[in-house]
Prior knowledge:
This protein is an alpha/beta fold. It is built from 18 helices and 15 strands.
Amino acid sequence: MVSAEEINFDGLVGPTHNYAGLSEGNLASARNRDMVARPREAALQGIGKMRRLRALGLSQGVLPPHERPNISWLRSLGFAGADGEVWEKAWKSEPNIARAALAASAMWAANAGAISPSIDCADGKLHASVANLQTMLHRLLEAEQTERTLRRLLPDQQRFAVHPALFPHDALSDEGAANHMRMAANAGAPGVEIFIYGRRASEPRTGFPARQTLEASHAIARRHTLDLGRTVFAKQAAKAIDAGAFHNDVVAVAHEHVLFHHDDAFDDKAALYAEIRAKAQGFEPVFVEVPTARVGLEDAVTSYLFNSQLVRLPGAKSLTLIAPSETRENNRTAEFVREMVAAPNAAIGQVEYVEVRESMRNGGGPACLRLRIVMTPEERAAAAQGFFLTDVLADGLEAWVKKHYREELAPADLGDPALVGETQTALDELTSILPLGADFYPFQRA
């Protein structure tokens, strides 16, 4: 066991946050398609969540938004002219393609990639594999820029191994940390890494897409040099996927020795429990299950009870659930949480509610917004320090958002060619706030 801490790196909501309904199987995304979005409020809500976790005594980081609209990609499709002209032509002639190029979905950093701490890896390095997100076009576009972000954050190749996305094919469909969990006695202890997949390659299914394949999960484990004696591969329940649990983190979340999940999250719950117990080292796993009779899948998905963060606050004997306000507003989930935290010797003994409503309306709760990275003190010192949240950085980011983000983006506003210049100006300035460099975004390299 080594000294280490888990750090949440949240995705900063981008200036083109909008409701395009692009994500099949994401019920909130579909339900709120073509609503008027509030990018400024969305970004400030995200920064507010980061501030709250830091105020609770936790380490917090921030990851930058991607360049949107993705003009370089649109140029590769044959659109020409000045950047604003490219966008205007794409919006008018290929609206579905244009909407994919505009999506601010990189804000959900849980999909950035899968992370394995150095204590779990045979080569002693912290490994990060960028997710290919190939199931959805608007998310497939993220991999290249995400890799640049992770290489900026984790530059020391002696300590960190950043892997590019797997080849984007249906057989290797990979959704990053949204389908990956880890259990351990504490952050610095050897852990059990749990990969949750929806299907095997070429396995047919009806209903919503199963976005993670077993083969992709196997590939990530091999890349990360994980010990199979402490690695678990388990199948997500088909009924959960078809109920709107497009990622495992919509129905399950783990931290330290605790796995908090819905009764219908896994295809074979008993086998998963047995394998985790057999492979756990130095801790006794605790499974906190929410029965279907108490909270149905529909309530779990709409409230995002499980798309919450589980954390241990400094000095706390039990874990704290960082849940969206929608969980408190749903009678069934609110009652379950009240009883859970009040139980004697509760594994999850506190709850903190946060307001991320703009993200929730697009299908992303508190857990979607963050990528968890376990770091030793030496690894933290080797990482790029400007990504770690401080009061000064949070103040600077809030001022930047208020200066550059539109208050509202209605569907009729999305084709505005002026939006391109606005976002490029904003992102160019952001590269002097975060340690990104003047060549970080494609428009800066053009």
